[in-house]
Amino acid sequence: MRISRRRSATFCKTKEALYDLEDFFHYHLANEAKEFPKAKYLENVQSVLDCLVGLQEQSSEEAYLTALDRIVEISRAKQWQSLDKQRDEKKN
User: What pTM does this model have?
Assistant: First the structure.
């Protein structure tokens, strides 16, 4: 029973974190995207948003874990630098 409660609590925290991430990236793209129109960084941010779209309507743990796995995969690209705006700016 204790493990089930912990798992449920962890799942709720994960969902909240993903909602927060989605909100942050939507705000970020709406307010700062013009500064980086050609940056690969923005493509990566959009890819993360694509993973998150619709999750609030999905209730299964599997859907959230699939999205989280994909976000980690995107983040891992280029030695964990794919979502680092400053690093991408230096290359342009």
Answer: 0.76
